[in-house]
Amino acid sequence: MPKREKSAPFTVLGIETSCDETAASVVRRHADGRGEILSNVVRAQLDLHAAYGGVVPEIAARAHVDLLDAAIKQAMTEAGVGFDALEAVAAAAGPGLIGGLIVGVTTAKAIGLGLGVSFIAVNHLEAHALSAGLTDGLRFPYLLLLVSGGHTQLLIVKEVGDYERLGTTLDDALGEAFDKAAKLLGLPYPGGPEVERRAAKGRATVKLPRPMLGRPEPHFSLAGLKTALRHAALERAPLSEQTIADLCASFQEAVADVVSDRTARAMEIYEARLGPGAQKALVVAGGVAANRRLKVALEKVASAHGFRLVVPPAELCTDNAAMIAWAGAERLARGFTDDLGAPARARWPLDPDAPPALGAGVKA
Ligand code: KG4
Ligand code: ZN
After folding, report:
1. Sheet holding 118-123, edge to edge
2. pLDDT, tens only, 167-212
3. Lower CB count within 10 Å: N or C terminus of the chain?
């Protein structure tokens, strides 16, 4: 099959199976660098995991096996292109739950091999990091706040494949903290949207700590906040609906303060590193970016520091395959492809040279 020029428009199938969404998408990258989503199919497995209060890896992996073929078929049909139009097949190859990653990576390799086109192993975090290029045409460099169920990071995105991690979490991820807060208040999974809904009916009257506030390195620590919330809840048990709402509002305020402070610190470091001429843009990605209270807080921080705030639409902030296809297309445009020996990786840091955060666990 003749290869097109790297600058020509090309079409990539993306596959996402790193957690509990089974997703497939077709994205076209035009010669001018613009991205176009031709289809974006996401099959959430929420009902399979809800009873357990979190994602069960073995159930997720089996569900990916059941759902992926149909998701790919639907993505191709909705895109209105045949497999022969594909220039490459990209799959999230990590970080994430290894069983699910193996399902997506193996499927992508098989399709790529069958078609005789490139396979691209995409770092799921890189896909989140690059999604603002697809949704908003944003150019490099920019500051990224990635806040999801599995990750909490502040990164300078300099170019495709060139990231500098400024901050990470020492313990729980931000979305995980929302999920645990919800669980201890007896609210359903996923906790983030439920806590936000309840918080809207409450007042932030409960005193909770703001961990890491004012620290020079923009790291996060959320486990202590969750423990303080547990104590506050126990002191007030049995909990009325109003008390639950007040606890949710108080928790969300504490999170907004911490995220504002940590992001402001990262902005200072960004400016010091890149100099006054660099573009000042803050991109927020990951499921927690859907939180409206957080968005208001970040708008305030951004405007105080002269940064433009870019929040991709919710369906492209949460896990999806369009961002995987787009990261694949961006890599392909720069000549990065992978061979069939590329592994699925449970851990895969975006900035392997980042100094370890003192006290950080496996999430660093
Ligand atoms: O990015 P995502 O869909 O999946 C990964 O974790 O990779 O993020 C899901 C996380 C969950 O922890 C969920 O509770 C949180 O994002 N989340 C929210 C909101 N919507 C989703 N957290 C706070 N407020 C929300 N509105
Ligand atoms: Zn994610």
Report:
1. 35-44, 21-29, 10-16, 86-94, 118-123
2. 999 999 999 999 999 999 999 888 999 999 999 999 999 999 999 9
3. N
CA 320 from centroid of its chain's CA atoms: 9
Neighbour-count burial of 55, counting CB atoms closer than 10 A to its CB (0-12 exposed, 13-18 middle, 19+ buried): buried
What distance in angstroms lies between residue 179's CA and the mean position of ligand 1's atoms? 8
Atom of ligand 1 lying closest to residue 20 CA: 4
Tell whether the model's pLDDT for residue 3 goes beyond 60: no
Most confident of 56-60, 313-317, 328-332: 328-332
pTM of the predicted protein model: 0.92
Q: Is the peptide bond before 355 cis (omega within 30 degrees of 0)?
A: no
Residues with CB under 6 Å of ligand 1 are: 19, 148-150, 175-176, 178-179, 190-193, 196, 286-288, 290-291, 318-319
Distance 18 CA to ligand 2 centre (A): 8
For residue 328, give every residue at least 6 positions away whose Cβ sits within 8 Å of its Cβ, in sequence order, or none.
12, 14, 88, 89, 90, 120, 122
Question: How far apart are alpha carbons 30 and 11 in whole angstroms?
Answer: 9
The protein residue whose alpha carbon is closest to atom 10 in ligand 1 is 149
Number of other residues whose CB lies within 10 A of the CB of residue 44: 16
